[in-house]
UniProtKB/TrEMBL annotation:
<protein>
    <recommendedName>
        <fullName>Lipoprotein</fullName>
    </recommendedName>
</protein>
């Protein structure tokens, strides 16, 4: 009998956890904005919002509008939102992505992610005006 209660309790906790995760995704995550010593802006998710699709994201790490860190590919430039915990490496124009490594301007990035139109992202109103592009991409290097 004790085994059944434990199993039921674990199943209940799993359902509660799944609801909490889905609720978090529905509400979307906020953005954390960091600025380098030279005034360049990094956008990172405040918290993880769930799994990314298997879509591949590739591009060169560049500045968007001479201000914000982003990616460019085939002539298009995208405001880029990096995973939670991503930060600017002090005194450089590099970013550090936890568990993945660093990106310097001009480096190639390949990973998972998702493209959004600027207005469809839940945090679009948090993107600074100088960082706005028609589309943005939320990246996840671990796909």
């Amino acid at each position: 009998m004790r085994h059944r209660r434990t199993t039921a309790a674990v199943a209940s906790l799993a359902v509660i956890g799944a609801v909490a995760i889905l609720t978090g995704c529905a509400q979307g995550a906020g953005l954390i904005t960091q600025t380098s010593e030279s005034g360049h802006v990094l956008l990172a998710q405040e918290r993880a919002v769930g799994a990314y699709p298997d879509a591949g994201v590739e591009g060169t790490f560049v500045l968007v509008g001479d201000t914000c860190f982003g990616l460019t590919r085939e002539g298009a430039t995208f405001t880029t939102v990096f995973p939670p915990g991503t930060s600017i490496v002090e005194g450089t124009e590099q970013i550090s992505i936890p568990g993945w490594g660093t990106l310097s301007l001009g480096d190639e990035f390949t990973g998972g992610g998702v493209y959004y139109t600027q207005d469809s992202a839940s945090y679009s109103n948090q993107v600074p005006a100088e960082c706005r592009t028609d589309e943005l991409v939320a990246v996840n290097p671990f796909r």
